[in-house]
Amino acid sequence: MLLRSVTITDPTSPHHGQTRDVRVTAGTIAAISEGLPPEEGERVFEGKNVRLSPGFVDIGAYLGDPGHEEREDIRSLTAAAQAGGYVAVAVLPNTDPVRQSVADMAYLDTHNRGGAVDLLPLAALSRDAAGRDLTEMMELDSAGAVGFTDGPGHPASGSLLRRGLEYARSFGGLVLETPYDSELAEDGQIHEGSISVQLGLRGIPTLCETIPLRRNLSLLEYTGGRMAVHLLSSAEGLSLVREYAESCPGLAGCTVGAHHLCFTDGELAGFDPNFKILPPLRGTADRDALRMGLEEGTITAIVSHHRARHGEEKDLEFSYAAFGARGLETALRQQLTWATRPEQLDAVIRALTAGPRQLLGMEPVVVREGAPARLTLFTTAGESEITVADLRGKTTNSPLLGHSLPGRVLGTVNHDRLWTSA
Q1: What CATH number has the domain spanning 56-360?
Q2: Which string of DSSP letters, residue by residue, matches 326-394?
Q3: CATH T-level fold of 2-50+372-390+405-420
Q4: Which of 1, 5, 3, 16 is nearest to 353 (CA)?
Q5: pLDDT tens digit string along 28-66?
Q6: DSSP designation for 188
Q7: For the chain, first and last CA: distance in Å?
Q8: pTM
């Protein structure tokens, strides 16, 4: 296939910022040049203001299959990810039953046979994600697990995290941990601040994140394992990551949810349950600090924090509505609302591509000749309103519905095929 007149947007590429033709042959970038003539029978993709980057990779999306396919199954998650420009998604183990066996790893692998999106298994850290006994981590790693976590709603105890980090150290495994202590925010609904007071809702203070985060980083420093801080939400949490960065060589990096870079707790003033997520949207200072952390490289990856919830879970009085929002379809486009400078766009693309690959220990993908062709095509031009038709999953719990967003995902290249967005 021939991708004509695309602006290469890859800070790791020697062609970054250049407008070139790119030829893909047998799943590899065969040529990058100006004015490449199409070969006989070759598929040609061409458009205006098209950008080409390495393929987006997501970490920690929720897949309901098996057990809760009414929320999201493999087909709907794949469709949502493709619409958002992703070529790979590392999915949480919080299914029913929990994803924790070699057979569970193989189940996902059977769906990675030349499709648009590769589904990568995150395996449970503890059996049944119950927080007691470790899973067979080394065996699961050999079977294809890209990391270990009990999921954002199941924070590890100090004892479990210590044992997990020590065990994973023996084979270089990654532990993914979301710092959140629910006991410090009993029945908390939104970020604790002026908005929670105005609305009369129980708040979730920042210390729910910072207290377990300091403990987790101290355990990492002690064990010498490898850990990623998942779903950072506060300026204080970011400062802690900076504080431990030098003394913790095993700190693989940290992730931030796409919504946390764009919204604040002010969005909750209208009691829209689609903005009710965990960790919660915090204040303007927190959002701005997270953006700065992304630009400076302290934050390694932007994740969709995709959690599909059906109407019976969301169409309730706010206090009873479940936490969670869709994010796969819109993660890039919503960043374009604030990443208007070239260096900001570079930081966003790096955090959607090289960053998550680095965290998961995946092969780097760089837009250069001879590299694997796992690519995303998008534009930053234009603007359109997000409608239900843009959401490709089984649910509509997106806080972006009705919002106008810049840009558009045009397609992806994966497994030697061009997958265009409808």
Answers
A1: 3.20.20.140
A2: --TTTHHHHHTTT--SHHHHHHHHHHHTHHHHHHHTPPP--SSTTSB--EEEEEEEEEEE--GGG--SS
A3: Urease, subunit C; domain 1 (2.30.40)
A4: 16
A5: 999 999 999 999 999 999 999 999 999 999 999 999 999
A6: -
A7: 19
A8: 0.97
